[in-house]
């Protein structure tokens, strides 16, 4: 073999060894790069998952806050509606009270007139004069009866109208004195021990609309 051939062979052998060496050197580096890329992708995916969880938690918190605000707003509106309705009812009751209070003195006068007529009739009794004036007395008596019946009819109608509007009389006669319903204007000795602190007479009746007293009864209490 010539020296040139041997030289060429040696050069080829050297190039082959260099290529193998390059492959050995490049192999681990490539694997490291692949591993690094995989770790980076994994890290990116973890970050995205974490961001997704944070966004979901934030959204849930916002929904809960909005729901709480809605419930508070609804509760405030419901309370406002109830308060307005209550105020309207109070205004109606107040207006009704004013009208009734204006009528009560008229009713008091009618009751006094009826009582006066009844007391007069009781005092006179059924005694009639048997003389020439008997006819005139009978005519006057009939006129009084007609007047009494008219007053009594109007009185009963007024009482019925008041009852329809929720007005009731405060029943205090013969009961233990209650300052929530009556005003004691006088005290007198009680006929017996059992009537001490009891209402013995009603000078002026008291009235209420539903559960609200609009005029206290004026009474005499036993002591």
UniProtKB/TrEMBL annotation:
GN (gene name): grpE
Region: Disordered, residue numbers: 1-58
Gene Ontology CC, one term: cytoplasm
Sequence similarity: Belongs to the GrpE family.
Compartments in which it is found: Cytoplasm
InterPro entries: GrpE, GrpE_CC, GrpE_head
Keywords linked to the UniProt accession: Chaperone, Cytoplasm, Stress response
Function: Participates actively in the response to hyperosmotic and heat shock by preventing the aggregation of stress-denatured proteins, in association with DnaK and GrpE. It is the nucleotide exchange factor for DnaK and may function as a thermosensor. Unfolded proteins bind initially to DnaJ; upon interaction with the DnaJ-bound protein, DnaK hydrolyzes its bound ATP, resulting in the formation of a stable complex. GrpE releases ADP from DnaK; ATP binding to DnaK triggers the release of the substrate protein, thus completing the reaction cycle.
Subunit structure comment from the entry: Homodimer.
Biased composition (Basic and acidic residues): 1-57
Top-level taxon in the UniProt lineage: Bacteria
Any single GO BP term: protein folding
Name of protein: Protein GrpE
């Amino acid at each position: 073999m010539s020296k040139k051939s041997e030289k060429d062979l040696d050069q080829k052998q050297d190039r082959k060894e260099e290529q193998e060496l390059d492959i050995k050197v490049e192999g681990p580096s490539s694997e490291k790069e692949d591993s690094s890329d995989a770790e980076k992708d994994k890290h990116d995916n973890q970050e995205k998952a974490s961001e997704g969880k944070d966004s979901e938690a934030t959204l849930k918190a916002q929904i809960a806050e909005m729901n709480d605000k809605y419930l508070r707003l609804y509760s405030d509106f419901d309370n406002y509606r109830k308060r307005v309705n209550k105020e309207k009812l109070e205004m109606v009751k107040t207006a009704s009270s004013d009208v009734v209070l204006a009528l009560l003195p008229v009713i008091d006068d009618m009751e006094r007139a009826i009582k006066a007529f009844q007391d007069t009739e009781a005092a006179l009794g059924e005694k009639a004069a048997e003389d020439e004036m008997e006819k005139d007395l009978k005519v006057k008596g009939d006129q009084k009866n007609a007047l009494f019946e008219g007053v009594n009819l109007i009185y009963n109608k007024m009482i019925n109208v008041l009852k329809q509007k929720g007005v009731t009389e405060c029943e205090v006669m013969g009961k233990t004195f209650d300052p929530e319903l009556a005003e004691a204007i006088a005290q007198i000795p009680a006929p017996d021990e059992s009537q001490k602190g009891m209402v013995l007479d009603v000078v002026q009746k008291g009235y209420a609309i539903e559960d609200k007293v609009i005029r206290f009864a004026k009474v005499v209490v036993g002591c």
